[in-house]
Write a structure and sequence with these properties.
The protein is built from 10 helices and 6 strands, in the order E-E-H-E-H-H-H-H-H-H-H-H-E-E-H-E. It folds into 2 domains: 6-43 and 252-328, 2-Layer Sandwich (Alpha-Beta Plaits), CATH 3.30.70; 45-248, Alpha-lytic protease prodomain-like. The radius of gyration is 27 Å and the shape is elongated. Helix 5 packs antiparallel against helix 8. By secondary structure, the protein is mainly α. The chain has a 3-stranded mixed β-sheet with strand order 2-1-3. Strands 4-5-6 form a 3-stranded mixed β-sheet. The chain has helices at 22-27, 45-77, 80-93, 96-106, 120-149, 157-185, 188-215, 221-248, 254-268, 298-315, and strands spanning 6-8, 16-18, 37-39, 273-280, 283-292, 321-328.
Length: 338
């Protein structure tokens, strides 16, 4: 007997049996070494994607409003430093667009070419965001070094300090919102974009602190603070880059795999099994294989698969779906005696 039986359940739908069908259950055939799988999605991917799109829309609108407010002060004050920070905030706000596109693509159904769907587009967008964070660090460092070698006289310090503070607060609010939603739906790209907004806020804060430094008679305060900000952004770059690259390489928290293994071992009483997990965008799925009694009927193996998948999902809240293959252990053949 070849092939297997798979049961699939989605929110709002009863589980469906595929493969051999009920006829084999009624016959009660014994199973040979092969597998049964059950996929039991817990969360509606469309709901999570919609929440991600809403987060991108709201934060993008807020960042554009913040940058526009800064632009008004630029025209009033004529501050070159604030103009540079405003243009930086405008350009960085637009990095949310690729993430928006990725969330929209995630709604598309899998095809014969992209059999797992388009969730990986979200990770690619996250990689682009990390690149932009790195460029922000380079630009901040370059501007600070330029101001150290060519000191510039700052005017309208009160306007500049106030606009920098507006940019800092606006970006920090967006950062907290993106990071919170990103962690809730499991989107490392949205979290990285949140950290991106936070680096922009810190850059705006540097403008405010630099204006205060000049006001106190310390003209070098602005470029020195700029260098410190560049180092802080570089630290964010390496942290966010590590998380995004791990996601692209199908990296997961080892504790997650250990939790699934512990649940399966407890349910089956055996450690003869393997567990794999991966992220596709903001969806986390696990696939496990367990070796069990060769005398199980096909129906019993199917029920066991259903039970194990449901138990794994209940025990590991981070998972969106689980697939469990039940493989019968080959019967031992006694050695021939002379």
């Amino acid at each position: 007997m070849t092939g297997g039986l798979a049961a699939e359940a989605r929110p709002g739908r009863p589980g469906r049996k595929h493969g051999h069908g009920g006829r084999w259950h009624r016959l009660g055939h014994r199973i040979r070494p092969h597998s049964h799988a059950v996929s039991t999605p817990r969360n509606d991917p469309l709901t999570k994607t919609t929440e991600g799109i809403r987060a991108v829309k709201v934060s993008l609108a807020w960042l554009m409003a913040t940058a526009l407010a800064q632009l008004v002060v630029v025209f009033l004050s004529g501050s070159a430093a604030l103009l540079a920070d405003t243009l930086h905030n405008f350009s960085d706000a637009l990095t949310a667009v690729p993430l928006w596109i990725a969330f929209v693509l995630a709604r598309r159904r899998p095809t014969k070419r992209f059999t797992y769907g388009y969730g990986r587009a979200e990770d690619i967008a996250g990689l682009l965001i990390v690149v932009m964070i790195g460029l922000s660090a380079v630009i901040a460092a370059w501007q600070a070094i330029e101001r150290l070698s060519n000191a510039q006289v700052m005017t309208h310090l009160g306007w500049v300090a106030g606009a920098g503070l507006v940019g800092c607060l606006g970006n920090e609010l967006v950062a907290r919102y993106r990071i919170r939603v990103g962690r809730r739906i499991g989107s490392v790209a949205l979290v990285a974009d949140g950290y991106h907004a936070r680096t922009d806020g810190v850059t705006s804060l540097a403008v405010t602190l630099g204006a205060f430094g000049v006001w106190l008679g310390l003209p070098l305060a602005d470029p020195i603070i700029g260098l410190l900000i560049a180092l802080a952004i570089a630290a964010v770059f390496f942290g966010a880059g590590r998380d995004v690259l791990r996601r692209i390489m199908d990296g997961v928290d080892p504790a997650l795999v250990e939790s699934i293994e512990a649940i399966l071992n407890q349910e089956t009483g055996t450690e003869n099994g393997t567990v794999r997990a991966r992220w596709l965008g903001h969806e986390l799925t696990a696939e496990a294989t367990v070796v069990t009694n060769p005398n199980l009927t096909l129906g019993q193996a199917s029920d066991l698969s259903d039970h194990l998948a449901a138990t794994v999902l209940n025990g590991v809240p981070e998972l969106d779906s689980a697939i469990v293959h039940v493989k019968a252990k080959p019967a031992e053949v006694p050695n021939a005696t002379a």
